[in-house]
From TrEMBL:
Residues 1-17 form the signal peptide. The keyword Signal applies. It comes from Python bivittatus (Burmese python). It comes from the Eukaryota. InterPro entries: ANGPTL8 (IPR026614). One of its GO terms (biological process) is regulation of lipid metabolic process. The gene is LOC112540060. This is Uncharacterized protein LOC112540060 isoform X2. Keywords: Signal.
């Protein structure tokens, strides 16, 4: 009888430490889970902030590109209108110049058939026509130079627009590659933010 009582007391002393050891293991596991959850949340928050920053940069690039394109398009339209006006004016001057040359030719034919006295009387008319032709030549030369300058400006603006577009395309490609890498690193579309970690359970983190 005494032996059985002693054995019962001994068994109770041997068995009782097991729950205490299991409790310590559970506490340690909960602490590891808590650390893991906090790390995942901090990483998610950092990625979220970085994503917002890159999205704002993307919007800024797009707005700046649209602004440059609108400005260059308006400037190109203005130069095109000016070039068209200069071209029409040049065409009118060429027609007038051809008419003047025709008049000079007619006067030369008349002078060849006139005597010396008539030639002296008509010298002033010939000189006036010659001066008019020289003035037209000068005007045509000026218009040709202005037209060429406008064409060069339009070509330079086209190159500038192309450079800006290439620069922004490269920036957008870099942003696209970064987003692609981010999706590979974090397979979830968005990790939820848990403001309070009362339970410290991994099941609170679910992919959307």
């Amino acid at each position: 009888m005494l032996a059985s009582i002693f054995l019962s007391l001994l068994m109770s002393q041997v068995v009782t430490p097991a729950p205490s050891l299991m409790g310590l293991q559970q506490v340690a596991l909960q602490e590891e889970v808590s650390v893991l959850v906090n790390g995942v949340l901090q990483f998610s928050q950092a990625l979220h902030n970085l994503y917002n920053s890159m999205a704002q940069k993307f919007d800024t690039i797009k707005q700046r590109t649209d602004f440059y394109q609108q400005g260059l398009k308006a400037e190109g339209t203005r130069l095109k209108q000016q070039s068209q006006a200069k071209k029409e004016e040049l065409q009118k001057m060429l027609v007038s110049h051809q008419n003047t040359l025709l008049q000079v030719k007619v006067l030369e034919e008349k002078l060849s058939s006139m005597d010396h006295q008539d030639v002296q009387n008509k010298e002033w008319e010939f000189a006036a026509v010659k001066a008019h032709v020289q003035q037209q030549n000068l005007t045509i030369w000026f218009l040709l130079g202005a037209t060429k300058q406008q064409q060069e400006q339009m070509a330079e603006q086209a190159k500038q627009l192309l450079r800006i577009q290439e620069q922004h395309i490269n920036e957008l490609h870099s942003l696209h590659r970064w987003l692609h890498v981010r999706k590979q690193i974090v397979p979830y579309k968005q990790l939820p933010l848990i403001p309070c970690l009362h339970s410290h359970r991994l099941r609170d983190i679910k992919p959307t």
